């Protein structure tokens, strides 16, 4: 009987890892869906270690998918800083704009984290914010954009960063909010995608680094180390394939299907949960 219980525990955490991984890169809000999942199935996860680990798993997958862009941006930024190579200036500016877009999220997160956690994390709020996400995706569903990487401005970066800050509220998709903002300021789909997911890296990395103490001091981590590690691996694999799939969806201009999904789930949550 104990073996069966342990088996189902592993299945549950593996499922949660896959669930986090699939919903993180696509514009449907992973945090909102975790709230819904916990409400539906009565799943209670104590402490922050689990959420930190599965988000770190998603970060690793994003690093893998965009590894060539990351290496190029780092190399060219260093070339521009130390050698003043003109052909590296565009990538250096791109990195600066990523930093500028990260700042609003960091400031607003520090100021409003407690309020959002206590007041805006209920399932009813998630239902409403999913509808908001659906409307935003519907608005940009046919936009094409004209700006390439080297045409992004500091104003564009700050607007996208502020949009990412809104996604601190469960139900507002981070990828959705940043891509919507990027498309509205005129970025091409490919550029909007790249900026959105490269912007995810410093935020996620910062949260992970600041939360190491929570993991070390979390009594649940030692007890549930194997399920947590399983969920972590599952989130890496699921995020990798979900992100590759979403990039393909963006290229084909089929964002409207995510909008429909958010509308349906949001309405069901409001009516029945």
TrEMBL record:
Q: List, alphabetically, the InterPro entries matched.
A: UppP (IPR003824)
Where does the chain cross the membrane?
Answer: 48-66, 92-112, 118-140, 192-213, 225-243, 255-272
Q: Which reaction is recorded as catalysed by this protein?
A: di-trans,octa-cis-undecaprenyl diphosphate + H2O = di-trans,octa-cis-undecaprenyl phosphate + phosphate + H(+)
Compartmental location: Cell membrane
Question: What are the UniProt keywords, alphabetically?
Answer: Antibiotic resistance, Cell membrane, Cell shape, Cell wall biogenesis/degradation, Hydrolase, Membrane, Peptidoglycan synthesis, Transmembrane, Transmembrane helix
A molecular function GO annotation: undecaprenyl-diphosphatase activity
Membrane topology value: Multi-pass membrane protein
Where does the UniProt entry say this protein principally localizes? membrane
The catalytic activity of this protein is classed by the Enzyme Commission as: 3.6.1.27
Q: Which Pfam families match?
A: BacA
Q: Which family does it belong to?
A: Belongs to the UppP family.
Please share what else the UniProt entry notes about this protein: Bacitracin is thought to be involved in the inhibition of peptidoglycan synthesis by sequestering undecaprenyl diphosphate, thereby reducing the pool of lipid carrier available.
Q: What does this protein do?
A: Catalyzes the dephosphorylation of undecaprenyl diphosphate (UPP). Confers resistance to bacitracin.
Q: Which PANTHER family match?
A: UNDECAPRENYL-DIPHOSPHATASE
Question: This chain belongs to which protein, by name?
Answer: Undecaprenyl-diphosphatase
This protein's species is Virgibacillus alimentarius
């Amino acid at each position: 009987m104990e073996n069966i219980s342990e088996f189902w525990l592993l299945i549950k955490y593996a499922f949660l890892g896959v669930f986090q991984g699939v919903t993180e890169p696509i514009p449907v809000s992973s945090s909102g869906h975790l709230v819904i999942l916990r409400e539906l199935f009565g799943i209670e996860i104590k402490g922050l270690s689990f959420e930190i680990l599965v988000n770190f798993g998603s970060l690793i997958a994003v690093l893998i998918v965009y590894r060539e862009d990351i290496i190029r941006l780092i190399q060219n930024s260093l070339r521009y800083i130390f050698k003043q190579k003109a052909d590296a200036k565009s990538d250096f500016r791109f990195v600066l704009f990523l930093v500028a877009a990260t700042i609003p999220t960091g400031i607003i997160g520090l100021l409003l984290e407690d309020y959002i956690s206590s007041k805006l994390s209920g399932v009813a709020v998630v239902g409403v914010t999913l509808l908001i996400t659906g409307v935003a995706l519907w608005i940009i569903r046919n936009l094409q954009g004209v700006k390439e990487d080297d045409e992004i401005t500091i104003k564009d970066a700050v607007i996208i960063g502020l949009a990412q800050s809104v996604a601190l509220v469960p139900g507002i998709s981070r990828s959705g909010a940043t891509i919507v903002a990027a498309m509205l300021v005129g970025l091409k789909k490919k550029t909007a995608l790249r900026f959105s997911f490269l912007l995810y890296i410093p935020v996620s990395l910062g949260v992970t680094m600041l939360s190491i103490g929570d993991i070390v001091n979390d009594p649940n981590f030692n007890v549930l180390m194997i399920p947590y590690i399983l969920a972590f691996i599952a989130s890496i694999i699921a995020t990798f394939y979900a992100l590759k799939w979403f990039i393909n969806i963006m290229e084909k201009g089929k964002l409207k299907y995510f909008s429909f999904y958010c509308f349906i789930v949001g309405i069901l949550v409001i009516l029945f949960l």
